[in-house]
Amino acid sequence: DQQVKQNSPSLSVQEGRISILNCDYTNSMFDYFLWYKKYPAEGPTFLISISSIKDKNEDGRFTVFLNKSAKHLSLHIVPSQPGDSAVYFCAASALKGNEKLTFGTGTRLTIIP
Amino acid sequence: ETGVTQSPTHLIKTRGQQVTLRCSSQSGHNTVSWYQQALGQGPQFIFQYYREEENGRGNFPPRFSGLQFPNYSSELNVNALELDDSALYLCASSSPGRREEVFFGSGTQLSVL
Questions:
Q1: Nearest CA in chain B to A6
Q2: Residue A5 — pLDDT band, cuts 50, 70, 90?
Q3: CA distance A107 to chain B (A)
Q4: 3 state SS for chain A
Q5: Average pLDDT of chain B, as a whole number
Q6: Closest in A49, A51, A98 to B56, CB measured
Q7: End-to-end Cα distance, chain B
């Protein structure tokens, strides 16, 4: 049972344009969401997070939007840079669940120079 | 770069053997979680240790076991290795209530032949 889904395995975006990565979840108990960036043979690196009491959080070029009614979140990267090329994972946690992270399967983002 | 360190970085074992992976948590963090990331998948939660006690477990068999030490470092032990145990094993360090601070090590790449 995949509780966190990233339906796009890959995405290619021109440098300077906006990258939009999507994530859907099914568990209503999830109340905190995180995005991680990962390079091969390295651990995930934290990018940005959002609590379920908010619908938007912004940090520099990265913005995460949360639509609780649709159980959907998205990560916007603007402008996209070549260094953004990596695999992006969406993760979710529930306060009443020892805050363990449930991850999606990832989206490979390629920025085209 | 996080303060979470894992050893070894790579390991090759044969089916039926036993393996121990190690993790040192970030300073100030008292919780360690272990994740298994198979090729092409997102990390899957194995278990979590908080103050030297197991604090939640994912869908993994009992041959996956762990320990946490008074300095909050941790070990993951896997007995009777199977071919499907080949994966990247990730350690994450955190503290309860500080949900944006979940930092991962670079992982141990385990290959079972």
A1: B42
A2: very high
A3: 10
A4: CCCEECCCCEEEEECCCCEEEEEEECCCCCCEEEEEEECCCCCCEEEEEEECCCCEEEECCEEEEEECCCCEEEEEECCCCHHHCEEEEEEEECCCCCCCCEECCCEEEEEEC
A5: 93
A6: A98
A7: 32
